[in-house]
Amino acid sequence: MEIWEDLESDYREQTGQSKNAYDELYQHIPAGVASTFRAWSPYPFIVDKASGVHLHDLDGNSYLDFDMNNGAGMVGHTHPEVTSAVSNQLEEGTLYTHPHELLGEAAKELKKRWDAVDLVRFTNSGTESTMHAIRVARAYTGKDKLLKIEGSYHGVHDYCLISKSTPKGQLGHPKQPSKVIESDGVPDEIAETVEIAPFNDLEAIEAILQDNVNEIGGIIVEPIVMNVGVTQPYRKFLTGLREICDEYGIVYIFDEVKTGVKVAPGGAAEYYDVEPDLVTMAKSIGGNFPVGAFGGREEIMRIIEDNTAHYGTYNGNPLVLRAVTTVLRDVLTSDAYDHVNDLGERLATGYEDIMEDTGIVGHVSNVNSQGTIHFTDNEISDYRDFLEHIDTEFHENYWFAMLNQGVLPHPHDASQQWTISVQHEQEDIDEHLEAFKNIAPRLADEQQSV
Ligand SMILES: Cc1ncc(COP(=O)(O)O)c(C=O)c1O
């Protein structure tokens, strides 16, 4: 593809130092990266430093950043209030493996945002949060099976590496998706404890529950599926699931690792006005510090006091909790949400206008600070729609064309979405759109030629 050859060659020309550094990293680290998702072709640029709304690489390029650390950076990089709070905490100790008052302060901030959350436990990542929430759900109900949605990502522990991104040809029946283990090293037996259901299909979920009567203890859903853009639930899907969970005695888990505090102060639970039993959180609650949390109804969370394990040396350490309390109290204020939501709308509308003007077929899916562009007319309502209608190679052209102009539109991959941070300003949105405008005619030609 000619456009791709040009884009790759421009990228290589701009990132020679990154290439050298990447080759060196590769000698010491599998795939040269710390999380396999970050290894993309031909090679990732290597970060020198971050500040505000920019990432700077070793070649001196700066990128206007809408990736924002896979959505962990709604506060933007190096936010002065967060940096100052955490710097002060450095002087007072970074880890106490004994209780301290910040635990309560941070928990109270989360409780204010989620009606469903009476009690909170802290972890160090989203993966740990979903792993523990699932364990708690199973322990509370005494039922070992988990129901998870096809195409949803909930972290990298064994129970969630089933049918996260099933390849075409292995999908199975749309109402009863296949169980596909996504990593070597995950035992087959794990898949026997997980049932897979389609998103946005209550009927199919109810049928799966009927087939597994009294076996399923927890349902985990990402209320907006962010492993396939910004895929929203149909009206009544989330409330319907609430009713189903009540009827069948199942713990309803919202995975708000990506949606939490970003689509609304109280995440998707607030945005859609649904009360789950447990909520998992991470990413933007910590302002770029490594933290996670899970919380929920008192009766369920108290079983941790009996015989349901939740431990961790670094859980609730004061360094990250200082960041969490500052982010939730002082940075993600209601003014900040107004600011970010306005910018989100400006970006989405700008994309739609440019596509219309240049004849690009596509649409934007967005909710407040989160959004993405899909180069198709088809609605994306679940993972299968994404597989069928999204041309990931074409999207790659768009992504590199933006990157080469110094705009990182979202994390690498067509499945991802942008995050508008509190530090972005109107001129950053306009710069982003200007870059798209520059490349749009060429993308339109390319799309028409396919
Ligand atoms: C919805 C969701 N849950 C869980 C996780 C895992 O979080 P972490 O990468 O902090 O382990 C992610 C990560 O992207 C996620 O998007």
Task: Please explain how this structure is put together.
- This protein folds into 2 domains: 190 residues, Aspartate Aminotransferase, domain 1, CATH 3.90.1150; 252 residues, Type I PLP-dependent aspartate aminotransferase-like (Major domain) (Aspartate Aminotransferase, domain 2, 3-Layer(aba) Sandwich), CATH 3.40.640.10.
- 42% of the residues lie in helices and 14% in strands.
- It is built from 16 helices and 16 strands.
- The chain has a 7-stranded mixed beta sheet with strand order 4-12-11-10-9-5-8, with helices on both faces. A 4-stranded mixed beta sheet has the order 1-2-3-15.
- β1 and β2 form a beta hairpin.
- The longest helix is centred in the C-terminal third of the chain and has 25 residues.
- The protein is globular.
- The model has no long low-confidence stretch (mean pLDDT 97).
Low-confidence stretches: none
The number of helical segments is 16
- Percent helix range: 40-55%
Number of strands: 16
Distinct ligands, ions and cofactors found in the model: pyridoxal-5'-phosphate
Given the C-alpha coordinates, what overall shape results?
Answer: globular
The Cα radius of gyration reads 22 Å
Strand portion: 5-15%
The SS-based structural class is alpha/beta
Largest sheet: 7 strands, mixed
Q: Can you tell me the number of structural domains?
A: 2
The CATH C-level name of the largest domain is: Alpha Beta
The CATH topology name of the largest domain reads Aspartate Aminotransferase, domain 2
Q: What CATH architecture of the largest domain would you give?
A: 3-Layer(aba) Sandwich
Strand order of the largest sheet: 4-12-11-10-9-5-8
The chain-level mean pLDDT equals 97
The name of the CATH superfamily of the largest domain reads: Type I PLP-dependent aspartate aminotransferase-like (Major domain)
Termini Cα gap: 10 Å
